[in-house]
Amino acid sequence: MLHSQNRAQKKGFTLVELLIVIGIIVILLSVVLLAVDPAKRLKQSRDSVRRQDVSDILEAIITYETDNSGSIPSGIDSTSGTYQILGTGGSTGCAASSCTNVTTLSSGACLDISSSLVPTYFASVPMDPLSGSAANTLYAVDKNSAGRIIVAACVPEVASSISLQR
Questions:
Q1: What's the CA gap between 22 and 6, in Å, rounded?
Q2: Peptide bond into 156 cis (omega under 30)
């Protein structure tokens, strides 16, 4: 009889029941977030890849500079505010119209830094996840008047700009 009275007095949920309910809520919330606007989520995902690529390119250039007594990869000009699009496309492969996020480009010529950085600093030069190619990666680099290297993504989708400098 005492046993049945103890059961009657205990009201509430067990820890296992609470964890199951929380797990179900998390799963449902994930499904709803994906169903609400999958295109926006994909754009945000690609911008995350762009942020990581910009960071990787900048880190490779800085590491190259450290390993080579302050010399940066050949071809990066020192004209402040004038970006160069990375790629193997040669003299006509990187049109200014392909890099909408960067205001000033040095020319239509691509800057091929792969000979300096591949394979020592990364396996291949990163390319924009949506429409980048080896010929035109849709990433740009600049060396400003203070000697800082700036790397930018040419076509971010959600963010207004994606760039890093060191």
A1: 27
A2: no
